[in-house]
């Protein structure tokens, strides 16, 4: 049985170390002993050492929003995977839509990052999702297939089933409304089918697929009831500890 998982990327919404510390402490008070679901937060890089203190021995794990696709060398401004490992990161987000569009992140490098995440003992949270224009032209599923094939390329079955696939339709990120629950469930089924075809039944049964894109306490209730939705990935509406807790509570079975 797949364990439900709820994550939150703080992006740059939380933009000071003090604010990160306070939010981490609030979350820890509310959820630090919750073990029925898996939870993680992804702050900006420089906040990670502070969060590692705040969340010491907590059920809430932490990670990074990105990392370099190489291990070391002349890559100005990048963050090496080893440093994330040294800081105790359990997760690393890879290929978010904002990174794909603003920072030109390419599928080849996303695959390199996924492999490096495993090399350094971190779980990759790989973002996939179609854009508005793909949806309009009915090629959303093809786009997603290609993103999945690239992300999982070359992984062993053991590693592939540990990947967390975050389905985030680009047209639903940062909006007032999320994708409809039926739409999400249908896409998750499609994603699981692709994984089954490429990597076999076992991997497809074990891999966790979470939904992201304008998730909040309200719509997470309905999302949590669907079989193929293994959790959610939250942005704006999870920045308040109380809201994050309400979302987590919805997923406790
Ligand atoms: C995201 O971009 O990953 C995200 C889930 O953002 P929001 O919830 O703010 O739409």
TrEMBL record:
<keyword id="KW-0312">Gluconeogenesis</keyword>
<comment type="similarity">
    <text>Belongs to the triosephosphate isomerase family.</text>
</comment>
<dbReference type="InterPro" id="IPR000652">
    <property type="entry name" value="Triosephosphate_isomerase"/>
</dbReference>
<keyword id="KW-0413">Isomerase</keyword>
<protein>
    <recommendedName>
        <fullName>Triosephosphate isomerase</fullName>
        <ecNumber>5.3.1.1</ecNumber>
    </recommendedName>
</protein>
<comment type="subunit">
    <text>Homodimer.</text>
</comment>
<keyword id="KW-0324">Glycolysis</keyword>
<dbReference type="GO" id="GO:0004807">
    <property type="term" value="F:triose-phosphate isomerase activity"/>
</dbReference>
<comment type="pathway">
    <text>Carbohydrate degradation; glycolysis; D-glyceraldehyde 3-phosphate from glycerone phosphate: step 1/1.</text>
</comment>
<dbReference type="Pfam" id="PF00121">
    <property type="entry name" value="TIM"/>
</dbReference>
<comment type="pathway">
    <text>Carbohydrate biosynthesis; gluconeogenesis.</text>
</comment>
<keyword id="KW-0963">Cytoplasm</keyword>
